[in-house]
Amino acid sequence: MIGHWVAISPERGRRPSDYRIEPDASLSKHDPNCPFCPGNEATTPPEIDRVDGAAGDWVIRVVPNKFPALNHEPRREPQRVLGLFERMNGTGAHEVVIESPLHAATLPDLPPEQVETILATYAARARALGQNPDYRHILVFKNHGKAAGASLAHPHSQIIGTPLVPHEVARRTRTATAYTEETGRCFLCELLERETRHGDRVIEATDDYVVLAPYASRFQFETRIVPRTHHHDFAASKAPQRRAIARALRRTVSRLANVLGDPPYNLVVQTAPLPTADTGHSPQAIARSLHWHIDILPRLSQVAGFEWGTGIHINPTPPEEAAAALREAAC
Fold first, then answer.
1. Which pLDDT tens digit goes with each residue over 135-189?
2. Is 137 helix (H, G, I), strand (E, B) or coil?
């Protein structure tokens, strides 16, 4: 739907078990040198937010990224460079959500209530950052494992507010609104109906959500969690919806772990640009067309020369095979 091509090449593939990555047994519940572990709070920048447990100790902390990609200076409009390029200052926000006091906890290790609280924290911080008129998009993502870009093993996610609408978000917005203008329907709402009837790529479906292996998946065992209820803005999600999606997220990562071991992955919350963004579409069109969801992208192989040279990903595991393996996995 977003205009990319993927080469599905089973002849290059291996059985799912061949991709199994064993968890790192050396990881403990606490690392005295980890800046995110309890007792080391002074090594991070001052807290932006926190959630305390029943005993008064923190269960989630939100802190500024110590090495931010963007900073808080006021936004300035892009300037022309050499008459060919554009340049603007790197205004924005870059926050870290420390998801648990436990150093080696993965999402399946956490109780469902903790995963729900993580999603609630994401939404609260996205709402807060969305109030800044300098920002155009809020991105929530998690890098799990070194191969997926994580620099620290302690479970954490990141939230970035950007001064522009990123290219992929703009492309997704254009294609989604074009589809709705042509058909009168949200693409993902229609996709859920068709995929659940067909069934080959569906991993799990309830009255609240559908988990599927996307058609033309770019990555092996790529999964998508889509709430049944249509809404364009993750930050505006309600507690019952987040509770259901938290259950789906925990179960899905558990399925991936049972099939693949402890694979590195990127998790991305795909949501609409902020109302401050000039997307060329009205807020009403955005609300009708876009449907927030969560993508989980296991990193089982390297993006190499063919992908960089063509923009076409090679996936040796057809999504139908991935979905079948994950459906059968314990969660």
1. 999 999 999 999 899 989 999 999 999 999 999 999 999 999 999 999 999 999 9
2. strand
What residue ranges define each of the domains in the chain, with the CATH number in brackets?
12-328 (3.30.428.10)
Q: How far is CA 271 from CA 47, 121, 218, 326, in A?
A: 25, 16, 19, 25
For the chain, the straight-line distance linking the first and the last C-alpha, in angstroms and rounded, comes to: 30
Rg for the chain (alpha carbons), in Å?
20
* Three-class secondary structure of residue 109 per DSSP: helix
Cα separations (Å) of 139 from 43, 101, 276? 25, 24, 15
- What is the rounded distance in angstroms from the CA atom of residue 97 to the CA atom of residue 93? 13
Is residue 156 flagged as an active site residue? yes
For position 82, what pLDDT does the model report? 84
Residue environment code for 251-287, b if the CB has 16+ CB neighbours within 10 A, otherwise e: bbbbbbbbbbebbbbbbbbbbbbbebbebebeeebbb
Catalytic pick among 156, 232, 281, 313? 156
Q: Which of 131, 154, 122 is nearest to 49 (CA)?
A: 122
User: How would residue 45 be classed by pLDDT, with cut points 50, 70 and 90?
Assistant: very high
Beta partners for 224?
Answer: 212, 295
